[in-house]
Amino acid sequence: MNFNTLDTSKTYLITGAAGFIGYYLSRTLLERGCRVIGIDNINNYYDVNLKYSRLEILNPFEKFTFIKGDISDKNMIAAIFEEHKPHVVVNLAAQAGVRYSIENPDAYIQSNIVGFHNILEACRHHPIDHLVYASSSSVYGANHKVPFEESDRVDNPVSLYAATKKSNELMAYTYSHLYKIPATGLRFFTVYGPLGRPDMAYFGFTKQYFSGGTIKIFNNGDFENDLYRDFTYVDDIVEGIERLLCNPPLEEDNVNHRVYNIGNNSPEKLMTFIQTLEKCLSNSLGREVIFEKSFEPIKPGDVPATYASTDLLEKAVEFKPKTSIEEGLQKFADWYCEFYQLSISK
Ligand SMILES: NC(=O)c1ccc[n+]([C@@H]2O[C@H](COP(=O)([O-])OP(=O)(O)OC[C@H]3O[C@@H](n4cnc5c(N)ncnc54)[C@H](O)[C@@H]3O)[C@@H](O)[C@H]2O)c1
C-alpha cells in the first residue's frame, strides 16, 4: 500500500453526524479508537427519530462528543474549532435531496452555502491537516457521456441542490489555493443502506408497501429507457472516506484540492433495483412481496443516468465500491423489518 492508513491519535470533526453517512463514518472512526466531535442541527427534513436512534448508538462511545448546532452559525463553529482543535474535518451536514430544492430553496443556501463557507473560514483560522467534504453525483447534471469522470465539464447543474454542491467544490478550491487548506471533495452516488434516509426512493417504496399504498415510479413507465443509477452501499462510502482521510492531496499547481467520485461503477436500471428490493423484502419476511406500482413522468431536476468512473479513487487509495445491490438491499430489508418490528405475517 502506498497510502497512509487512519491515524487514530487525531481528532475528527464530523458535521451531519446524526445523518445517514455521518453516523456510519462516526461509528467507524470511534470503533477504531479515534476522537470524534459530531455536530448536527437535527433538522426535521425527515423523521428525527432516525437521527436520535443513530445518536443513541454513538453516545456510549467515550471518545464521542455531540454538539447540537447549526453550521450556518459562524460564531458557534469558530468556538467549536477553538475548543476542540480538530485535525481532520469532514463536512457532511447539508440540505440533501434534489426534489426538495424546488420546494424549499432557502434551506440549501443556508446550510450548503453559508454553512460550508463557515467551515472553510474556520479551517482558514484554525489550520487543519485535511478537510473532506460531501459533493454529489448530481453535479454531472444531465451529462450524457458515461461513466462520469472527474475531469468532465460540470457547468450545467439541473437543480439548486446540484448548484450548491458544485459551488462547494469551487469554494473549497479557492480556500485551498489562498490559504493552503488541503481539501478533498467527494461526489457520492446514490447511497443506501440500513438506517438510511426515508426521503430516498428505496426507503419510501418500502414504507409505502407496508402502509398498503401504491409506489410511484418517476420513470415514464419506459423500461427500455429506464433511469440508471449507480447505487452505492453505505459501507463502501465509509471505507472510501476512511482511506482518504489521512491522505490529503499533495500540492499541485499551487493548490492542494482534489475531487473524487465514490460510486459503485455498475449502474442498475431503476426497475431492476426495485425488483431486487422486492426479493430482499420477500426473503426477510418469508413471503412474496410485490409492490403496487404506478408509473409517472420523470420529475424536473432528475437526471437520466448516474454512473461513476472510480479510476481516480482507485489510483489514490486502492479502493472501489464493491457491494452488489443484492447484498446491500438484503441488509437494508432485514434492518427495516427489524427496526419497524414487522411481523412475518403482516
Ligand atoms: N445519501 C446520498 O445518496 C448522497 C448522495 C450525494 C451526496 N450526499 C451528500 O452527503 C452528505 C450526507 O448525506 P446523508 O445522506 O447522510 O444526508 P442526511 O440528511 O442523512 O445527513 C445530513 C445531516 O446534516 C444535518 N444538517 C443539515 N443541515 C445542517 C446544518 N445547517 N447544520 C448542522 N447540521 C445540519 C441534518 O440534520 C442531517 O442529520 C450531504 O452533504 C449530502 O448532500 C449524499
Radius of gyration based on Cα positions: 20 Å
What's the name of the CATH homologous superfamily of the largest domain? NAD(P)-binding Rossmann-like Domain
Indicate the proportion of strand residues.
15-25%
The averaged pLDDT comes out at 95
Helix count, DSSP H or I runs of 4 or more residues: 11
CATH names the topology of the largest domain as Rossmann fold
Instruction: Give the structural class.
Output: alpha/beta
Strand order of the largest sheet: 3-2-1-4-5-6-11
What is the CATH first-level class name of the largest domain?
Alpha Beta
Task: Describe the sheet with the most strands.
Answer: 7 strands, parallel
Bound molecules: nicotinamide-adenine-dinucleotide
Amino-to-carboxy terminus distance: 49 Å
The CATH architecture designation of the largest domain is: 3-Layer(aba) Sandwich
Q: Characterize the overall form.
A: globular
Q: Could you spell the SSE succession in H and E letters?
A: EHEHEHEHHEHEEHEEEHEEHEHH
Helix-residue proportion:
40-55%
Provide the domain count.
Answer: 2
Counting DSSP E segments of at least 2 residues, the number of strands comes to: 13
Low-confidence runs: none
